[in-house]
Write a structure and sequence with these properties.
With about 70 residues, the protein is of the alpha+beta class. It has one helix spanning about 20-30, and strands at about 35, 45-50, 50-55, 60-65. Strands 1-2-3-4 form a 4-stranded antiparallel β-sheet, with no helix packed on it.
Amino acid sequence: MVKTRKVGSAGRFGPRYGASVKKKLVKTEKIQRKKQKCPFCQGIAKRLSRGIWRCKKCKKKFASGTYFIKSGK
């Protein structure tokens, strides 16, 4: 994957789509790629599909945010 200093992982799109769209994408991808904590046992949760998560420790399957787990606060 091609990365550039200014746009990070969105560098794969080259000059297309505009700077503001690529900045939003980079922000979302940075959060998405962090390890997500299970709200039940604080183990590591993995994204199965859009909004569906599964904890590796307690094996619970639950729904939350599309790209990252939203806190219940």
